[in-house]
Amino acid sequence: MKVEEINTKIEICEAAIDLYLEDAFEIPKLVKKTGKTASEIYTLFPNKQSILEFYYPSLIIRYRAMVGEIEGFETYTISEKLSNFIYTVFDMMDDRRAFVEETFHPMIGDRWTNTDFHNEVKELFKDFFTTDEHMAVSAAFLLNDYFYAFLRNQYLSLVNTWLDDESDDQVRTMALTDKLTSFIEEVVYNKVVDKGLDLMKYIFTQTGLSDDINDFTDWFSGWCSDEEVEIDIEDEEASEDQPGAAS
Hints:
247 residues, mainly alpha, elongated
């Protein structure tokens, strides 16, 4: 999708939200508000509902554009990247809080199948982890579609917490976010298993079994150094299409 087309879709979506909050969301009024023809609008959106639903994936599209302007973002730790994403999107949602409070559950949280928003969040997390240079070698065992789907679902739960949080300045959500991102970083950066392999190699070398352990460690390192572990994701995709899979 071209940048100009994305910007036009965002413009139409924002205007539609304004009308929706005024209980006046009708295509003729949207045409008048945006200066676009009905034909132009329906060229970009298949139906009226999809205009409003575009708000959620547009958050990720806009966030990616913002990240591109952050100097040195690629050097951030994984917890810093995750926190930056979570807090930034919270701020973006807060600008449209009335709309989010009314539509997040029916459009995202309670959906039985994955939406564009679900997929965009999952792909963003995948980009974060597969481009991070600080990962432990053994973390490759985790970095698959199941893991990214799990992170996405935890994020959706965090949004639910944010929406329900009545504490001052939503400190409960902030604390939960910090603990969650720190824990994830500890899991994928922890090099205990890596050091264990080095120890095994040393011990076996000293006991005359160096050839066997070298073969094992070479296989393990080669397997883990792939950019992504290839797995059969048909079961996972099928399970996500079942009731409750995206909640």
